# Entry
Amino acid sequence: MTQAYIKVISGSYKGKQIAGVVFPLIKAYTKHGDQPAFVTVDGSHAFGAGKEKIRVKVESIRDAVPSTIEEFLSNGRIDNVPAVKAAEVESDEVVMERISNRFEILHEMTKAACAGDIRAMIVTGPPGVGKSFGVELELERAAVFGHIANRKVKSEVVKGGMSDIGLYQKLYEFSDKDNVLVMDDCDELFYETTTLNLLKAALDTSKVRKISWNKESRALDGADIPRSFNFKGSIIFITNIKFENIRSKTLQEHLKALESRCHYLDLKLDTTREKLLRIRQIANTGELFSSYDFEKEQEAEVIDFLFANQPKLRETSLRTALKVADLYRSFPAKWQSFAQELVMKSAS
# Structure
């Protein structure tokens, strides 16, 4: 069997940062639940004897790409990898501007959904970067301005599990024009045939989007909900799933049909650096720590703590920033030592 090779664009092994190093591949990109993703490689050429099978941590599948034996012979040792020129590294300001542009699209597209100008959007990105906050903020604004303009904008954010009959009922409840239904982390809807078919009908590109329920249901009879209706509202899906990473061929076909009916916005916060800069970006607006009554220097201390301890953090997210801020406010003399125990990985 021919040996495969993989280049780690950005990763780490036992705290040592790896960028641009090629390894003989043992097992491709792997991720289990909330555990860090990794690739299993032969690290002996880079790290010496005894490292014939190691796990290199990576942030996303894009951080480990196929390579060749020729590239391995050139860049198979960490010492041999040429230094990246400063001009080739994007500045923090450039990265933050790109992130800001994507979130601006999120806000504008949510406004368009509230206005009934678009029927559906899928927003994907890692947890804890403000996806839900951006959408909910625009829903609140739409409700206020709609009241002033004598235009009733009806919306709801649904989180957690939902059955097929529950989805049918919720679609009926928000079937009118100027209605916006937000599905936040309701990912199981994507895995069930019946719920996917209901969503495809609700988001069809035809002039009339008719949804039908052709099975017995006491729930519908008791709620006086018809067995078919026309859906005129808009739907926003917020998810951590990247559709292109789904491996099931059957599910891929379903998701492609759903994606073709929706605008698909990937916030692309795939690297730890991007997540940290997103946290700094929101902190700079004054929104992140607005309820803490912090001085600017204190806010900066919290952010600097996250940057300095990133490799040890259990999660790089806005939630972690707020946890550290809670500790700072409650234990101003001991917050760093408390944070080391409460938001950082065990050293063992």
